[in-house]
Write a structure and sequence with these properties.
Blueprint lengths: L1 H22 L16 H28 L4 H15 L3 E2 L5 E2 L4 H8 L1 H18 L8 H26 L3 H27 L6 H38 L1 H16 L1
Antiparallel strand pairs: 1-2
Length: 255
């Protein structure tokens, strides 16, 4: 019965995703780092940095699905949550945008490496279906949202759980800081590619970061609260699957 409820909710989330796909207004600046915006050298560089994490993520996902195939629905839920939240975009710095990322939930559930795959698949579909991001800039967008964000979120979650044991606080901070760290990295990527004439990379980073902060800080807080609500729902209606997931993650941490 609980598995059926989880499947029903997953279908609702996917239905919402379809709605966003076909009803969302398009904008030239309503993107991650948009197609063709980065110089070729930087686009290649971020692809090269991202690919090793993607390979490690594939290995982690393969291990999870082989050892505990019951968690495939939870993986789908984490991916759908990331897709929906990261599709809710607010135009921000020229050539980019502010939006929730949704990667904190998946990082808490499965760790950061699987999210490098789930997040990059989400970004690929958004680039192809929503003109949100791009293929040449996929490496940069995936590194910031699917690698850096989940790593920060997971590290914060582990640290707070170890030091305080307060799970809801840990989940809130993981989701919020995974969101914020994504845009810190994006600001750095833009600053490296487009240093200011006066002040260079540092001045450009400060400018991009300050502009992002106006929209991203409240979005990060909202994402943290929403992630807690989703976690509470999972505890109420999918406690068996969540317990299985948590036992598996403890085993991974010990090994």
């Amino acid at each position: 019965m609980k598995a059926k409820k989880l499947l029903t909710t997953s279908l609702l989330v996917l239905g919402f995703t379809v709605y966003l796909t076909f009803n969302e207004p398009q904008s030239a600046y309503a993107m991650h780092i948009m197609e063709g915006f980065l110089p070729v050298g930087w686009a290649i560089f971020w692809w090269a940095v991202f690919i090793p994490f993607f390979i490690l993520g594939l290995r982690a996902l393969t291990r999870i699905t082989k050892e505990t195939p019951e968690l495939k629905i939870m993986l789908g839920l984490a991916a759908a949550f990331t897709f929906v939240l990261s599709a809710l975009k607010i135009p921000s710095v020229t050539g980019s945008s502010s939006h929730p990322t949704g990667t904190g939930l998946g990082a808490v559930m499965f760790g950061p490496l699987p999210m490098s795959v789930l997040g990059s698949i989400v970004l690929l579909f958004q680039a192809l279906l929503l003109a949100h991001g791009g293929l040449t800039t996929l490496g940069a967008n995936a590194f910031s949202m699917a690698v850096a964000g989940p790593m920060v979120g997971y590290g914060i979650y582990r640290w707070i759980m170890k030091s305080t044991g307060k799970q809801r606080l840990a989940i809130f901070m993981a989701a919020a800081l995974a969101d914020l760290s994504t845009y810190i990295v994006t600001s750095l990527q833009l600053a490296l590619a487009f240093p200011a004439e006066v002040g260079g990379i540092a001045a450009s980073f400060a400018k991009f970061g300050a502009i992002f902060a106006f929209t991203q800080v409240p979005l990060a807080i909202s994402e943290g609260l929403l992630t807690i609500l989703i976690w509470n729902w999972l505890q109420a209606y999918s406690s068996e699957e969540l317990s299985l997931l948590q036992r598996k993650m403890k085993g991974v941490q010990k090994s």
